[in-house]
Amino acid sequence: xxxxxxxxxxxxxxxxxxxxxxxxxxxxxxxxxxxxxxxxxxxxxxxxxxxxxxxxxxxxxxxxxxxxxxxxxxxxxxxxxxxxxxxxxxxxxxxxxxxxxxxxxxxxxxxxxxxxxxxxxxxxxxxxxxxxxxxxxxxxxxxxxxxxxxxxxxxxxxxxxxxxxxxxxxxxxxxxxxxxxxxxxxxxxxxxxxxxxxxxxxxxxxxxxxxxxxxxxxxxxxxxxxxx
Length: 228
Ligand SMILES: C[S@@+](CC[C@H](N)C(=O)[O-])C[C@H]1O[C@@H](n2cnc3c(N)ncnc32)[C@H](O)[C@@H]1O
Ligand SMILES: Nc1nc2[nH]cc(C(=O)O)c2c(=O)[nH]1
Ligand code: SF4
Ligand SMILES: [Mg+2]
Prior knowledge:
The chain has 228 residues and is of the alpha/beta class. It has helices spanning 13-16, 68-77, 96-105, 165-177, 180-183, 197-206, 217-222, and strands spanning 18-28, 38-44, 64-67, 82-86, 109-114, 128-132, 157-162, 185-190, 212-213. It has a 9-stranded mixed beta sheet. Strand 4, helix 3 and strand 5 form a beta-alpha-beta unit. The longest helix is centred in the C-terminal third of the chain and has 13 residues, at 165-177.
């Protein structure tokens, strides 16, 4: 008997595609352009960055290996149009690109939260990328991959999370230098607990910036409880 004939059930390529997942949950989108929509979140495990203010450190390690078929089926079970793929850093797992395409093929309106440190050029163009640019107080500004800006589509968004006046001035310069507001929607959001949201709002008004101020809605609603 040949060794191949002793193998158990054959696996299709789709079944073989697995991703490490921290959680899948059904909530209200708390960030970016899709804010307020009922959304299923798929949080991929692992991140090569360490932003000092990261609110999702629990996604750095652990998680469960899940097949893409299984993930797509669990997402569908919630009956939501919107799906947000986040992490950790979702693009750190190469097969995330397959998941994104499968979710689009299943008819979902898909967004991707990404740090801006990994190449976004291969992301399915149907996906709305929400790409951070990391400001200096994150401790990870050196990781910004500026070439990503050239891959942004009009439906994408650039987000800068701001912890101080110095971060704000950096963000204002980055928007001007790279003409970001002409390319897509630009979001400025305060680091939760670091600056008064009102200060950031007033700076934006004073400087007449064409950026969208944003607070994380889920933190107002659920105060950072897991699963929301
Ligand atoms: C947890 S990250 C996961 C996706 C990806 N790693 C990234 O950084 O975009 C999702 C979003 O939450 C934001 N975020 C994380 N911690 C935050 C905090 N303390 N206050 C405000 N936004 C925060 C990030 O900047 C990012 O826009
Ligand atoms: N409700 C809710 N909305 C979110 N939008 C982006 C999130 C994230 O952690 O990436 C997030 C999250 O964790 N919860
Ligand atoms: S890139 Fe995203 S997940 Fe990673 S440390 Fe920064 S905010 Fe957290
Ligand atoms: Mg979050």
